[in-house]
Amino acid sequence: MTTPRPPVTAPSDTLPLAIIATFLSNAAMSGLAAPGSASPAPSGTDAFSAPEPATAYAGSQRVSGDSSNRLTAALQQAPWRRPAALSRLVDGLEHFVASAGFDRAPWLAVALGTGIAAWFVLGAPWQWIALLAGLLGLAGLAAMLLSREGRFPYLRAAIVSVALAMAAGSATIWTKSVLTGMPAIERPSFGEITGIVVSRQEQPAEGRTRLVVAIRDPYAHQRIIRVRINVPAARDAASAREGALIRVRARLMPPAAPMLPGGSDFARIAWFQQLAATGTAISPVAVLQPGRDGLLDPLRRSLSAHIRRNLAGSPGGIAAAFASGDRGGIAANDEDAMRDSGLTHLLSVSGLHVSAVIGATYLLALRLLALWPWLALRLRLPIVSAGIAAFVGLAYTLLTGAEVPTVRSVAGAMLVLIAVSLGRSALSVRMLAAAGFAVMLIWPESVVGPSFQLSFAAVLTIVTLHGAAPVRAFAARRIEPLWARALRHGAVLLVTGIAIELALTPIVLFHFHRAGLYGSFANVLAIPLTTFVTMPMIATALLLDLFGAGGPAWWLTGQSLSLLLGMAHFVARQPGAVTMFPTMGQGAFALFVSGGLWLALWHRRIRYWGIVPLLAGTLWLAFLRPPDVLISGDGRHVAFATLAPDSLLMLRDGRSSFARDNLAESAGMDGQITPLDQWPGARCNTDFCALEITKGGRVWHFLMARSHNQAPLGETAAACAGADVVIADRYLPRSCRPAVLKADRSLLEQTGGMALDLTEATIRTVAESQGQHGWWRPGTSPSPRASSEGRASQGPAAPAGNQ
Known about the structure:
Blueprint: H1 15-31, E1 56-58, E2 61-63, H2 66-75, H3 78-99, H4 106-121, H5 125-145, H6 153-180, E3 189-203, E4 208-216, E5 224-232, E6 245-253, H7 266-273, E7 277-281, E8 286-289, H8 296-310, H9 313-324, H10 332-340, H11 351-370, H12 373-376, H13 381-399, H14 404-421, H15 429-442, H16 450-467, H17 469-475, H18 482-512, E9 514-516, H19 519-545, H20 551-573, E10 578-580, H21 586-601, H22 611-622, E11 629-631, E12 638-644, E13 647-650, H23 657-667, E14 672-675, E15 682-684, E16 688-695, E17 698-705, H24 713-721, E18 725-727, E19 741-743, H25 745-751, E20 754-757, E21 762-765, H26 784-788
Parallel strand pairs: 5-7, 13-14, 17-18, 18-19
Antiparallel strand pairs: 1-2, 3-4, 3-6, 4-5, 6-7, 6-8, 9-10, 11-12, 11-20, 12-13, 15-16, 16-17, 20-21
Helix pairs in contact: 1-3, 1-5, 3-6, 4-6, 4-15, 5-6, 8-9, 9-20, 10-20, 11-13, 11-14, 11-19, 13-14, 14-15, 16-18, 18-19, 18-21, 19-20, 21-22
């Protein structure tokens, strides 16, 4: 039996240091024993006590007298005392882990997610192998070194389990990427395709239907791929449903990589959704063979259509989204207002909606069953009610499309029902960790997506806040007037909303480069309105429709949704409602995540150390500067973010808002867009624009191509020689040699979009964050136009690099 140790203060250090400490201490203790001596040290002494004055051993030679004193002094020097200090450090870590109790388990889920995230951050197979080998080696080393004499059982278990969980996370996402990832088509395609409809989503607000079709790869006919096609309403066929064989002419594109560093990576999303291409139908859809309707898809579509017949416009679209998961009927301006007011989470079926359905079903079943005394005396009604609520929750999930966020939410709700049935706490960090662990094993790719991060961060914030003693005391039931109870509950809801808004802001800024400042105040009214008025009224209206009496309920539902939209537009119009930030780096995001998890998962004073990385991340954001120049991956779009206050200068101001929005978000700007040829400092003609920028103590000369007209080689070479940076959406001849950077198609095909910091003279590229993952395919043409205007018209291509 191990002798109990007195409590010690747990130092904050790393686990690998603990292993080194144990190794050094054991080595030092064995190395100081006298050769040939088999007797242990006397009681009350240790391996670092001075030897007897008369006799000592140094190596294999006997010494005495002054030599013994000198040896004693040598043993007391810092290098020999250090192993003892490290041994005490390991003892402290052992005590810290042993006393952590239930706080330990959630960190296994964090370790699993960290391993998954590490696979995405690392870019090459050899790095993934090295990561797995290092983690497995750490687990084995800890098991061997810390198993001596059974001294550190908790520390050994912690190191081994965390290392194995991280290795399992990396192995899981790597395996899923290899087994389920869908490589994109080689290049853009235009022509007639024939295939089977896999899914159909009607989007009346955008005047189109979105079909996912299984076809043969146009360039590798032995491969079956899935493509997503947007079909305008005028070219759609109502019979093009799941299972139908259709023929249509379409323009297909490989899934787009991020346009700029830090941008949305649709290619990665499509890889795991098994989409090899996206495109648009350019001919009417011909149904060659009708499909067989399933059970849920026709029900979902008829329910959505029924709701939109009773409620017109965006209110009908939102009601349909709540009931069937179909968001296609929400107008774009209303969806933007919901986003800018911080209410967009209400539009997708997730934790709020699942909780409302399951909670209402549980309470209703519990009250109704309690009216039957015979049943109430023979069965545990909470268990029966939980079973009924679970069944309704699963049915609601299937009806709304069983999307990943919904499945994730219903999985958590099932755990809550189990806890309630067993008389345990309904919400706890361990329950959330169990749900997250299950989700990450099934959908490991969701770890790097905003949906997973936002939903789990919100629930973790709620659990942590309401687990704090001051909040529990303030929210506890008491005898008081109704108005006082309402005010107290409103205050708790407001504080919860503010806490959630603060927790989600770094995630929103990292993924979307914008955050709403008034979202917490809007949610104080919007969440109760949605949960206690709108959703019950939708259910009531659908029930009354069975008897032809749903009209009044639909009118009330429309009024509540109009109030919700009015609130969203009012909040979105307020000055400063939306804050734009430049692209946040992975370092700052890691500080926020690590600090938030440390603050939320521990329940002792050590949790407050999590404030340190949170403050560091906040300072990082405070000093964040937008890049001076942004270059899209195809070279067509160039933006200058720091030349004019509150204005973004763009080389081309195209008709599509996609490029403008991406450039403005990456620059952290929500101001005016100014064409570069209207800027006084620019010199532009039909083919080129020239611009001089003073940054970083020097003058930068930019030359940008505006057309595909081929200039004489001598003139092109002379113009390039006088420029520091040349940017073109076409291939430039080898004779074009700028002083610093030639960002033509040859280079951009390898690097993707670029962000230039002229003050620091640094370049960030999309390729830096992609590595050798399967969805990143350098060297492909990003658009059909660019592909058709290729090398033939521009002469020999320049090699990838600065020339």
